[in-house]
Amino acid sequence: MIEVKNISKRYRNTVLDDISFTAEKGQCIGIIGANGCGKTTLLSIMAGVNKAQSGKIYYNNELADRKSVFKKYIAYVPQENPLIDELTTKDNLLLWLGSNRKIKDGFENGVLKDLGIDEFLNKQVNELSGGMKRRLSIGISLSNNAPIMLLDEPGSALDIYGKQEVNSYISNYVKNGGTVVMSTHDRDEIDLCTKLYKIEDGILKECEG
Asked: Measured between alpha carbons, how far is residue 95 from residues 102, 113, 114 in Å?
């Protein structure tokens, strides 16, 4: 379960103004809004990458006030590609996961198997399609078997096939009890959502219908 309580963030202007919402196990929460409205800022705060000026976040009733809490509960997939193009898929996994044993475990009974990353394990990242790169990024982020996934425009820059691959994984993740919060402009991604919110002028409002 996610509880976001009274989160505010200001730069020169107010980006997030007293944001609050909850998300239960098995829910997919979508956040829409114009570019620059604060969607990415909110997700980065929820991931522990950015800090709010005020407010609190709880994951399964545990206050998210230290790195160990974020690591325990959160898989964060930002828009930016964290992969090194000159390395193979396997080398990127080794770099991020730290050991061949963790990679093996991921293929035997974890997210790497579910995402089909074995199909392109020995390819260089610069040879992969957009969908493959996104699947790899998700696999790396979820290697800790996190129960909550934060996605910043997961279909960004993907072709229709890449979007279908990623959306299929998101759907299965939620069906299996995971919780997803994602920013999006994409109609197919919006259709995956249990609830939809919009950020406008720093205010978060639930969309009706």
From this structure: 11, 18, 20
